[in-house]
Amino acid sequence: MFRRFLKVSLIVLVCVVLASLWAHKPRPELTQGPEADALAQRVVNATGAEAWRSLKRVVFNFRGGRYEWHVQEQVVWIGDAPERIILDLQTKSCRGETPAVEVSESACRYRTARWNNDSFWLNPFGKLFDPGVDRGLCTIQQGAPPWLCVRFNSGGDTPGDLYAIHVGPDERPTAWRMWVKILPIGGVHAVWDQWREIPGGAWFAGLRYVSAYTVPVELIQVDP
Which pLDDT does position 20 carry in this prediction? Predict the structure, then answer.
């Protein structure tokens, strides 16, 4: 029985390794220049980056976490009362909404890391011209038009992550491929779809998924 179990386990392991090798894509090279910057600027404009920055408040859920982002004050209320935590995005400091809620340094670092990731999935395209970001054109498929490649050299929690963005005819992203530290496979494919204009003139992709997994971003309320 044990030998049979071991044999089946080895077969499964080999299948997983082969599938990973098949799915893995080599990290592309960036060709930087004015064409890449112009394409990135069109994406920024088409997704309403200025409108996002002008909003007063955005409330959304991601992976079971609730965020109330006060955009102008640069603070985020995380969770629900009375256990809510307030994260100051300028100082990267945390406090409880009430004196009864204590937030340790490690808990604050964890909340900050979660915010960096979760807000990125909400709307990453306003970050294309942040300091430390390289923009370039890259070849994802031979013979096809180049994609916009963006490498985040600083900021966030995993500097060096690279995203190749496929831009649709309306200048909004339809998909991207990811080369990120958190994933062992390079070039994982994600789809952005069902774009819609939200209050204040910003744009939000109502559906995004990685392979067969739907990324659970639920936009609850927007105050322009």
Answer: 37
Q: Which two tokens stand for residue 54?
A: 């002008």
* Phi-psi label, residue 106: left if phi above 0, alpha if psi -120 to 50, beta otherwise: alpha
At residue 34, the pLDDT reads 97
The pLDDT value recorded for residue 5 is 31
Closest CA to 173 of 131, 127, 110: 127
Following DSSP, what letter does each residue of 29-68 receive, concatenated? Answer: PPB-SHHHHHHHHHHHHHTTHHHHHH-SEEEEEETTEEEE
Which residue shows structure tokens 């709307």?
A: 123
The token duo for 25 is: 């894509």
Residues 208, 213, 215: CA angle, nearest 5 degrees: 40
Low-confidence ranges of the chain (pLDDT < 50): 1-22
Q: Which pTM value belongs to this model?
A: 0.84
As a dihedral over the C-alpha atoms of residue 21, residue 26, residue 27, residue 30, rounded to 10 degrees, the angle is: -160
- Residue 23's pLDDT is 67
CA 208/CA 23 separation, integer angstroms: 19
Q: How many CB atoms lie within 10 A of CB 55?
A: 20
Q: Looking at the DSSP assignment, which residues form a beta bridge with residue 86? A: 77, 95
Strand partners, 196: 204
The answer for residues whose C-beta is within 8 angstroms of residue 60's C-beta and 6 or more apart is 66, 67, 69, 122, 217, 218, 219, 220
Peptide bond between residue 216 and the one before it cis (omega within 30 degrees of 0):
no
pLDDT digits (tens, 9 = 90+) for 185-217: 899 999 999 999 999 999 999 999 997 789 999
CB 67 within 8 A of CB 76: yes
